[in-house]
Amino acid sequence: MKRITKILGALIALTLICVVTCNGIIETNAKNKTYSATKNMPTNKVGLLLGTAKWLKQGGINPYFEYRIRATVALFKANKIEYVLVSGDNGTQYYNEPSEFKKELVKKGIPAERIILDYAGFRTLDSVVRAKEVFGQTSITIISQEFHNERAIYLAENHGLKAIGFNAKTVKGRNGLKTQLREYFARTKVFLDILFQVKPKFLGEKIDI
């Protein structure tokens, strides 16, 4: 029994070390590559807006959705991007992240013809790889919350895509804490995806922007 306890303790300690190390690598890599204000930040032709659900399960609008809309509009109006590539999950006919984002962006004044929808952004990895392989971008501005941008930048760079991030407002409170706790493990999975050369679920024909 003592031996099993020691083995379990060692595995837990190893897992924690791995999670902390992966988090640190991604955070360090993103230093000076994310921005919270449009002033002095570089420009890119395309802003990659990472999708999320519009509505919370318990009701009400998802603040992650709302804050990413605000960030995208600010970036576009500051002439830091020319087009918005909205990449999200459209797994069923009843769940369509990209279309929900487009509706709100158009309401906020971004012309519909400047918004391109990627319906196969099932994961962050899929979104950044497809931005390069399907939509032909070599340099891009990723739009999401800072912790998400940091992970997306690391993935993008490991797939040959130059990337910076524009940080949407951070979500505080219970919802924000739960998401950021999950992020620690998502960052660990990044290295497994890279190690095993995981590919996007779909690629398909190239689309010019």
Q: Quick recap of the structure?
A:
It is built from 6 helices and 6 strands; from the N terminus they run H-E-E-H-E-H-E-H-E-H-E-H. It is α/β, with parallel strands linked by helices and 209 residues long.
**Content-based structural category:** alpha/beta
Helix content: 40-55%
Question: What ranges have pLDDT less than 50 throughout 5 or more consecutive residues?
Answer: none
Which shape, going by the Cα principal axes?
Answer: globular
Got a strand count? 6
Radius of gyration: 18 Å
CATH superfamily: HUPs
- In CATH, the topology is named Rossmann fold
- Main sheet: which strands, in order across? 1-6-5-2-3-4
Q: Profile the largest sheet.
A: 6 strands, parallel
**Average residue pLDDT:** 93
The CATH architecture name reads 3-Layer(aba) Sandwich
- Tell me what portion of residues adopts beta-strand conformation: 5-15%
- Please work out how many helical segments DSSP would assign: 6
